[in-house]
């Protein structure tokens, strides 16, 4: 979706529907397969695979201890896939446009700028993570659990340092609150079709399965 308004609204609706029940996760997954270009999403977001494995581990533990782990795993996996779809479609500046459109040029501008800085920080952290992996491979170090703590420490330190530098730069330039910005959006027909389909999937997700088949007959 090119229109961030439709993409954000669709992601929120589908995530809620997927979290509600297995039935909701199933219909949301069908939408994801049809409209998200799944191969493109998975190619760009191969890092979601460890997250899915982690969710599967916690789901297994939950299933053994109290039950419901399989349901939790399936629902959270679909939500992660929706998040990956939103992230791969991100274009610089669109969250600023979204928040200014929602809340105006003061509060909306501030929230949009925070979102843009957060996305930029995330991209830089992913880039740093790739460089750390490459450096360890060149040294012949085997990547494992022991590498997570020092790597995470480096990533957090780098993110905090960049945050301090950004705050100092904004203070030097005299930024206080809000800004002047006129958001523009492009809404192609395929975005509207995908949004309508997501709305239909959301409605179906909140209808109990038995009632759905009664309505169908």
Provide a descriptive summary of the structure in words.
By secondary structure, the protein is mainly alpha-helical. The chain has 2 domains: 1-89 and 187-217, no CATH class; 94-184, no CATH class. Helices cover 81% and strands 0% of the residues. The chain has helices at 4-20, 22-35, 38-44, 48-65, 69-88, 94-139, 145-172, 189-205, 209-216. α2 runs antiparallel to α8 (189-205), α3 packs across α5 (69-88) and α4 (48-65) runs antiparallel to α5.
Number of helices: 9
**Beta strand %:** under 5%
Shape label: globular
**Whole-number total of structural domains:** 2
Instruction: Determine the fraction of residues in helical runs and give it as a percent range.
Output: over 70%
- Largest sheet at a glance? none
Kindly state the mean pLDDT as a whole number?
A: 81
Distance between the termini: 34 Å
H-E order: HHHHHHHHH
Give the structural class.
mainly alpha
Please give the radius of gyration in angstroms.
21 Å
DSSP, total strands: 0
Residue stretches low in confidence (pLDDT < 50, at least 5 long) are none
């Amino acid at each position: 979706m090119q229109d961030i308004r439709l993409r954000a609204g669709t992601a929120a609706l589908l995530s809620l529907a997927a979290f509600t029940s297995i039935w909701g996760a199933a219909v949301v997954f069908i939408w994801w397969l049809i409209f998200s270009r799944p191969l493109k999403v998975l190619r760009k977001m191969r890092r979601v695979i460890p997250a899915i494995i982690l969710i599967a581990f916690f789901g297994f533990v939950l299933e053994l201890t109290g039950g419901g782990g399989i349901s939790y795993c399936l629902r959270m996996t679909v939500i992660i896939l929706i998040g990956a779809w939103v992230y791969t479609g991100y274009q610089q500046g669109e969250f600023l446009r979204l928040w200014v459109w929602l809340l105006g040029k003061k509060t909306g501008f501030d929230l949009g700028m925070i979102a843009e800085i957060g996305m930029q920080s995330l991209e830089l952290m992913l880039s740093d993570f790739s460089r750390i992996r490459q450096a360890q491979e060149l040294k012949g170090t085997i990547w494992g659990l022991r590498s997570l703590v020092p790597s995470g420490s480096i990533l957090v330190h780098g993110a905090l340092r960049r945050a301090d530098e950004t705050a100092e730069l904004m203070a030097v330039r005299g930024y206080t609150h809000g800004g002047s910005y006129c958001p523009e959006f492009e809404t192609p027909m395929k975005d509207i079709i995908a949004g309508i389909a997501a709305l239909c999937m959301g409605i179906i997700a909140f209808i109990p399965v038995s009632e759905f088949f009664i309505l169908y007959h």
